[in-house]
Amino acid sequence: MSDQKPPQSISISGSSLSNNQIGQAGRDQTQTQQIIQSSTAPSLSQEKVLALLADLENLIKNTSIPQNQQEKALRYLSVAKEEAQTENPDKQFTADSLKKVAGVLKETNETIETGQKIWGKIQPILKQLLPWLGVASSFFF
Asked: Where would you tag: which of 19, 30, 120, 141 has the fewest CB atoms within 10 A of its CB?
């Protein structure tokens, strides 16, 4: 019987790895790691992101949702806008703040008819922000 082991191959696609070793062998091993990044959506500029956040703010301010819900959503949005304006924004922090805005508006949507109108207007704006934030499309929805 031969001591040679058949060649091993591991292919990983669409994932991020936290360490450099993805395989382990009893003897010799050749490991090649190739990372290909592609983007289907163009990256948004900081100015475009701030404009979209301003659009969200105007929609929230000009709707007839209950005052307490409106104020709560605007507080979370204010935090997101403040972070997005920094030189090196923490996009995860911004995304988390916007997720809270979305949560408030979803809750309003479920209980009040006027909420349905605002949620339908806000969804397209949130979808445009997804690539900049680096989150999956299911993050807000």
From this structure: 19
Residue 124 lies in a domain: yes
Domain total for the chain?
1
Structure tokens at 40: 């289907």
Range of the domain at 105: 46-133
* Per-residue pLDDT reduced to its tens digit, 44-66: 899 999 999 999 999 999 988 88
b/e per residue, 59-82, with b = 16+ CB within 10 A? Answer: bbeebebeeebbebbbebbebbbe
Residue type, 51: A
pTM of the model: 0.67
Check if the beta carbon of residue 74 is closer than 8 Å to that of residue 57.
Answer: yes
Name the residue type at position 70.
Q
